[in-house]
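Hi support team,

I submitted a single chain yesterday and got back a structure, but I'm not sure I'm reading the token output correctly. Could someone confirm the output below corresponds to the sequence I sent? I've pasted both exactly as they appear in my results page.

Thanks,
R.
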Amino acid sequence: MDSELPGYSEAPSSTAAGPSSNASQTGLLQGHTSSRQDSKGFEWLTLTVNSRAPTSTSLPVFYEGDVISGQVDFDVLKSESIKGISIKISAGTTLVGQEEQLFLDVETDLWTPSMSLPNGSKVTKFTKGKYSWPFSLTLPTEVELQDQKTVKKFPLPTSYSERAGTVYLDYKLIVTVKRGLLKSNHTLTTAFAYVPVTRPELPSPMLQKAYNENLPLVGPEGDPDGWHTLPPFTIQGKFFDSHTAEATLNLALAKPLTYGRGTVIPLWLTLTGDDEQALDLLSTHKAIKLLLVRSLATGSDATSDTEHRTDNCFFENVACAVFWAPEDYRGQGQRVLQGEVNVKRSLKPSTLFPRFTISYQLDLQSFEVAGFVPTAPKSTPLLRQKVTIANFPALGVPVRSHAPPEYVQEQAADYNKSVGLLENGNQRFIHHGGTGGI
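Hi R., thanks for writing in. Yes, this is the structure output for that exact sequence:
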């Protein structure tokens, strides 16, 4: 997997069940067990929790709206006085070289001296035996935080941890056995992954019909409601040092401009002009370089709409579009190409959160054609369009790839753009452990 989630020392175990793609409790079938042991290997504190994870060895996974439920077992070998037992959900962001800043802390008491045990009895001291408490914790859908001097409400963000990362966003379940004055408390911590339930709105009726019936897509001219067309761009340059020509480019993206992980971004590109040779050269699929670029902003201005400082904003090319010529779309003075960008399941969704923002954009780079020299070479993209990546596809619409089998998705990665804190990020990743993933 491209993305990693934080590791933890307790080894989970359970029975298997598959994850669900909705937020109902029916998907919480996978059990995970972690424990604390004494010096002789006796498991005296155990936490069992049910989640959506595919296997017992995976990190527990919860979706937006899930209720986290399970059981805490306290196995006493000799009589002991304690002050209380509690369980809480804790979540925070950690920037490389800085302390964690918590944004979520939901705690409930399982037992205090004034509370009865689950069987109704009361104790002041725990004698030898096994004591168990079922628990149920509801994840809030949003939190209220200060951001740039203003208190705002934000949806809970996705879990986040990547190799060489500069920021980590961790969710944990923490059981605490409180032992009173002059004695240190005992804790049992299990990390888990949180997945917001985000989806695109439905596409146009014509696009829905094409997806559901596996039909060819109808372009912007036949389905104007289904496409977002960018302003036209004129390409000018010299071909084979012999003559100068130009072509007008029109690029359209399927609407809405939100795309689920594991689907594609459909594209429609049209080139028009008077020079047939220039059109043929510019319309070859390898000449067009359209990149899906991820931006990760951290720090106090992460949610700002203005340009982020280069030392806390990191860019990475995460996918490259492929283009091909559909049948019956070649005409005099015009070339039409259909295309798509593969939205990998491993991508993290678009996120707007204090100190942690993930955004995406499509960048059309200068054309790369043998024998073509642009009149005004550009180091910046010719066209740019912001898009949103959601965790799940639109309900009831199987967004299919229409790329011909011979066209292999060409993924791009430019690690030269992600510089500055990578060395520290590697150190931080080692600290986290780097195990697990969704």
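A quick pointer for reading it: Residues 216 and 330 are 16 Å apart (CA to CA). Let us know if anything else looks off.

Best,
Support desk
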